[in-house]
Amino acid sequence: MKTNYLALCAIAGLLASTACGKKEEKKNAAPPPTPVSVVTASTTPAVYYDQYPATVVALKTVELRSQVTGFITSLNFQEGELVPAGKVLYEIDKRQFEGAYQQALANLRSAQASAQNAQVNQVRYQRLLQQDAVARQLAENASTTASTASAQVAAAQAAVTIARTNLGFATIKAPFAGRIGISQVRLGAQVSAGTTLLNTISSENPIAVDFAVNETNIQRFITLQDQKGAVSDSVLRFVLPSGQAYKQPGKIQTIDRAVDAQTGTITVRVQFANPQRQLKDGLSGVLKVLNTQSGSRLVIPNKAIVEQMGENFVYVALGDSAKQRKVQLGPRLRDDIVILSGIKNGDKIVTEGVQKLRDGGKIQVSAPGAAVAAPAGPPAAK
């Protein structure tokens, strides 16, 4: 019995030792390689734009207001049409202004006649005074009367000018060629001098687009403005609200005089040709400015980027392992992204399976375009 007991204990100890050895061996076994897909980082032409919210503005805009009071007697345009400079747009009842003008002319003629008579009397009394045939007082009075008459002529001439000006104000003309808006008054309406808004007219070709840039970027746009002859047609582009790109290129016309102290921005105005009148005053859109880093750049798929603690990394396949590299990102180009630093042309970049990787981890590279295989499981127990 004692011998059998000792044999059983020996067998049990041998089995326990074998089991522990297998557990330790399983514990120390390396994890299987992670299946991944890779692409080769390559340098390609990368053209991308900085985008700014922008508003279309007319280079010339004026509110038409009457400078005299009266009733509208004529509207000589179609609302919304293009009008040439000098076209008669509105007419105000002219009868009172024509009457005032005629009266001013009559007063001028009367003053001129009185002045002429006073001048004759002055000459006559001066001759008589030289002959000692009249009192000096009468000669001096004649000179005073002639001077007064001359002043009255000047006043009458000024009154004629005022009356003629008011008569001209009764006819309102287009100050420049542009598009007239919807009339704010109708035929027969009474308007007041300087207060009643009649209409608004604005120029359309050329036209401008205003946008705000951060004060840190002012020098960039000053440089573009100074390169008037060298700026490419693709540098400044406008995108319509529909998302359609406006075909005409733009050029910087002016940069505002000062930075807004509250927003830290400055307004830049870009001028565009508008032959088809496609751009309208007040239209909103996006102004695209060619980024200074456009050119031949290193580009990889955006899905290869791993973000950790606010920093960006990629995994580079080196043989059968993956090494983590910190990268500096540039602009996104649809499904790709520009890499400014951290990797070089020709590096094999992991694009599939990055979430399962760790720095230095073993990898199994799939053929380009092939589905990534699932990681191999542990061997089946025999």
Describe the protein.
The chain contains four helices and 24 strands. Helix content is 28%, strand content 34%. The protein folds into four domains: 34-47 and 295-365, conserved putative lor/sdh protein from methanococcus maripaludis s2 fold (Beta Barrel), CATH 2.40.420.20; 50-58 and 203-290, Beta Barrel (Elongation Factor Tu (Ef-tu), domain 3); 62-93 and 170-202, Beta Barrel (OB fold (Dihydrolipoamide Acetyltransferase, E2P)), CATH 2.40.50.100; 95-169, Orthogonal Bundle (Helix Hairpins), CATH 1.10.287.470. A hairpin with a 2-residue loop joins strand 18 (306-308) and strand 19 (311-318). The strands form six sheets. Strands 13-16-3-12-15-14 form a six-stranded antiparallel β-sheet, covered by helices on one side. Helix 2 (95-130) packs antiparallel against helix 3. Mean pLDDT is 83; it is low at 369-382. The relative contact order is 0.19. It has helices spanning 2-28, 95-130, 136-169, 218-226; strands at residues 34-40, 42-46, 49-57, 61-65, 70-75, 82-83, 88-92, 171-173, 178-180, 190-191, 197-202, 207-214, 236-239, 250-255, 265-272, 284-290, 295-301, 306-308, 311-318, 321-326, 328-333, 336-341, 348-352, 363-365. The longest helix has 36 residues, at 95-130. The protein is α+β, with helices and mostly antiparallel strands.
| First-to-last CA distance | 35 Å
Give the overall shape.
Answer: elongated
**Tally of strands:** 24
Domain count, please report it. 4
Order of helices and strands: HEEEEEEEHHEEEEEHEEEEEEEEEEEE
Number of helices: 4
* Top-tier CATH class of the largest domain: Mainly Beta
Mean pLDDT: 83
Report Rg: 45 Å
